[in-house]
Amino acid sequence: RFVQYGKSNNEHKLLLLEAEVKSMMGEKDDASKKYQLAIAAAEKNGFVHEQAIANERAADFFLRNNDESKASRHYGNANSLYLQWGAQGKADDLCKNIPF
Asked: Who is most buried in 14, 33, 52, 90, counting CB within 10 A?
């Protein structure tokens, strides 16, 4: 019962967790899809900070899997979203430590 009421609050978190598990299990295609679904769900429900985190985690995934183009795009999205959320320090740290 609570799942239905809280779906918009938690769907993106579950999808991100599933993406991380798929990534660790080596299921790259499924992981990629779950990251995209997590990002879309966070955006749909207005969770800018969670959308930023999902983009950063997706970028890390793509970087580990030698897709620098997708990694760069997701790091850029994460940076913009962190700034939109007001997390200047996190955005600065991302720029300093991740060359995208």
From this structure: 52
